[in-house]
Design brief:
The structure holds 2 protein chains of 2 kinds. By secondary structure, chain A is of the alpha/beta class. Chain A contains 10 helices and 9 strands. Chain A has a single domain, classed as 3-Layer(aba) Sandwich (Rossmann fold), CATH 3.40.50. In chain A, the strands form 2 sheets. Chain A has a 6-stranded mixed β-sheet, with helices on both faces. A 3-stranded antiparallel β-sheet of chain A has the order 2-1-4, with helices on one face. The chains are: A alpha/beta, B alpha/beta.
Chain lengths: 282, 248
């Protein structure tokens, strides 16, 4: 089935982020084998290194690992929140997948962020402007992507809030007066406003109580099924990973230690760290 | 024609967090499944039945050996195929129906069943009608259709699983104890539904401890003992048969 090999949406190779001044031994002196991501010689920090994967259209990929394992770094690099140290990434709808998005100009990166990607952060304050109304937040994303007609923008914002089960009559309220679960749903509405083919979800249910968590997860599943958005779900919570994803990368000390089908990772983990993670599941 | 050919399949679990303890689950398994054939897989608990099934579905990574699967697009080794290839096969051809329902919070029974149909059926009302017919067939109380399966009994959850598996019309169905917690009336329905799939060309590997189900369903049986196939019960002497039945 060779046709499968070239149908990726996002291709990532050797994605690496190091803070500080590494030397040529930094990568060899860090990683899961030594259980550290701090270089003993230079004290540079390897947030992630050598991360490679392909994401297919409509696929949901999980990245799981403990705090500091580098899972959020991967998503932040791909969303241009931080600058890479090394590596490359290609996105099919951008230049037919022939140009490395990490090398794109600032203007091109803004275009990619506004048209081809959405992101939902753990903290709604990172994804929403709390001094705007919730409708205004969604409008901001739409305006950035070139929508100008106020009527159309309001209509789209109402549609999205309805879709994410936020009462439309609260369109003009700022997210600051919303509950945590509602803020998260406004953030999701904003992230999908331009129908991006790719959505990043970084610990989106962490800190929400279980009933609200279920509602947010349910919404994500529904959006994925209805709109066929490909997603990268970063979570330390294996239940979230189990519920949402087809495939999973397990990260530790900045490296991917195992990747596989999610049910395989959960039921037949190969790496010692994955085994520890799965055996710690409540 | 064989849809599945298993050659020398072995599976051992290496538990790195328990000082690399090794648990041998399957040892050099050889077996075939013909197109449209229903194989009953028997053996006592811990004999490797589920491990074999999970290796076929790639929930378990085999340690060695081959699983040649004749997909619509050509022969694939399920042991070494890429993850995306497996995802595609699971979507289009191979279905695993476990004994346990992995429930999704806040999704009603009817929607859990419909989810399978929505992948191919654009008309949502038509999909819902088919899902309802299936639940009715399986004697699911109508009061439960809109309820969340997390609170259901074992038999009710099992029927949701079976409904999903049947409606997805796979080419290869791997089904684990489909009738274990059902009454005879409902067992008969499940047996008939699986036989209908077979008529349409589906091959089935079915784990069961239930003589009633195996008698009516299986074209052939394979018996596992300590991770090895010990023979086809039809070929065994009555003494061996008695021993095996006792073990069950």
């Amino acid at each position: 089935m060779s046709h499968i090999d070239n149908s990726w949406l996002l291709r990532v190779r050797n994605l690496t982020k190091i803070y500080g001044e590494p030397n040529d031994r930094t990568l060899a002196l860090t990683g899961p084998e030594v259980n550290s991501n701090i270089c003993p010689e230079t004290e540079s920090i390897v947030a992630c290194a050598g991360v490679s994967f392909d994401l297919y259209p409509g696929e949901v990929l999980g990245i799981v690992g403990e705090s500091g394992s580098g899972k959020s770094t991967v998503v932040k690099l791909l969303y241009f929140d931080i600058e890479k140290t090394a590596g490359a990434a290609w996105l099919k709808p951008y230049a037919g997948g022939h140009a490395d998005i990490l090398e794109a100009s600032g203007q091109q990166k803004r275009f990619i962020r506004n048209h081809l990607m959405g992101t939902v952060y753990q903290n709604p304050r990172d994804g929403l402007n709390f001094s705007f109304s919730s409708g205004g937040n969604i409008a901001e994303k739409l305006i950035m992507a070139g929508h100008m007609n106020v009527g159309n923008i309001r209509e789209r914002a109402s549609f999205l809030l309805d879709k994410t089960e936020v009462p439309v009559r609260r369109l003009d309220d700022p997210p600051a007066v919303f509950s945590g679960g509602m803020q998260q749903r406004v953030q999701i509405a904003k992230a999908i406003a331009n129908n991006p083919p790719l959505l990043f979800l970084d610990e989106v249910t962490t800190g929400l109580d279980v009933s609200v968590q279920a509602k947010v997860l349910d919404l994500i599943r529904e959006l994925q099924q209805e709109l066929g958005i490909a997603m990268i779900v970063v979570s330390h919570d294996l239940s979230v990973i189990r519920m949402l994803t087809d495939r999973t990368l397990v990260m530790k000390n900045g490296r991917v230690v195992e990747s596989g089908l999610t049910d395989q990772i959960l039921q037949d983990p190969q790496h010692a760290y994955s085994q520890l993670l799965v055996s710690s599941l409540l | 024609m064989n849809i599945v050919e298993v050659h020398n399949l072995s599976k051992a679990f290496e538990l790195h967090i328990l000082s690399d303890k090794r648990i041998n689950a399957l040892h050099r398994i050889n077996m075939n499944i013909a197109e449209g054939e229903i194989i009953g897989l028997t053996g006592k608990s811990g004999s490797g039945k589920s491990s074999l099934m999970k290796c076929l579905y790639r929930t378990y990574l085999a340690s060695s050996g081959e699983i040649r699967y004749a997909s619509r697009a050509g022969v694939v080794d399920l042991v070494t195929a890429g993850d995306h290839e497996i995802i595609e096969l699971r979507r289009a051809e191979i279905r695993y129906c476990s004994q346990f329902l992995s429930v999704i919070p806040r999704v009603s029974a009817i929607d859990v069943v419909c989810e399978i149909l929505f992948r191919t059926e654009r008309n949502k009302d038509a999909a819902r009608t088919r899902a309802k017919e299936m639940l009715e067939n399986l004697h699911m109380p109508t009061g439960l259709w809109d309820a969340y399966p997390v609170t259901f009994s074992g038999g009710e959850q099992q029927r949701i699983n079976v409904a999903r598996a049947i409606l997805s019309k796979p080419r290869l169905l791997l089904i684990d104890e489909p009738t274990a917690s059902l009454d005879t009336r409902t067992k008969d329905v499940v047996i008939d539904l699986i036989r209908d799939l077979k008529k349409n060309g589906t091959s089935v590997l079915c784990i069961s401890h239930d003589e009633y189900t195996l008698d009516r369903l299986a074209d052939r049986r394979l018996h596992l003992q300590s991770g090895e196939i010990t023979g086809h019960p039809a070929d065994l002497s009555s003494g061996q048969m008695a021993e095996i039945t006792q073990l069950n």
